[in-house]
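re: ur question from yesterday

yeah so i grabbed the chain u mentioned. its 115 aa long if i counted rite. heres the sequnce exactly as i have it in my notes:
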Amino acid sequence: QVQLVESGGGLVQAGGSLRLSCTASGRTFSSAGMAWFRQAPGKEREFVAAIGWNGGNPYYTDSVKGRFTMSRDNAKNTVYLQMNSLKPEDTAVYYCKMRTAVDYWGQGTQVTVSS
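ran it thru and got these structure tokens back, copy pasting raw so excuse formatting
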């Protein structure tokens, strides 16, 4: 059974930075693609970023390109989302997802950006 635990969320002023972490249990992490999604109040969950099993070629939704960076450390079973130049519209619950034959989701971490 895979469990994903996100951390690093919080309250930050516009223009600030946060780094989210997602740590996975189980032995499938190093061979699995990982992704970050977010869900703002009253909105559907949306894709933010994804990365392959080896950390190559991360890709991002247009609204975060140039501001967010996704990376992974397979030795630590952890993926990261470095978020810079945060905007109020980045406010959401952020979820990580492990992409295997079955998708696994974390419980989410709240990010609030004040103007």
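noticed a couple things. The chain has no helices and eleven strands. also The chain has a mean pLDDT of 96.
anyway ttyl
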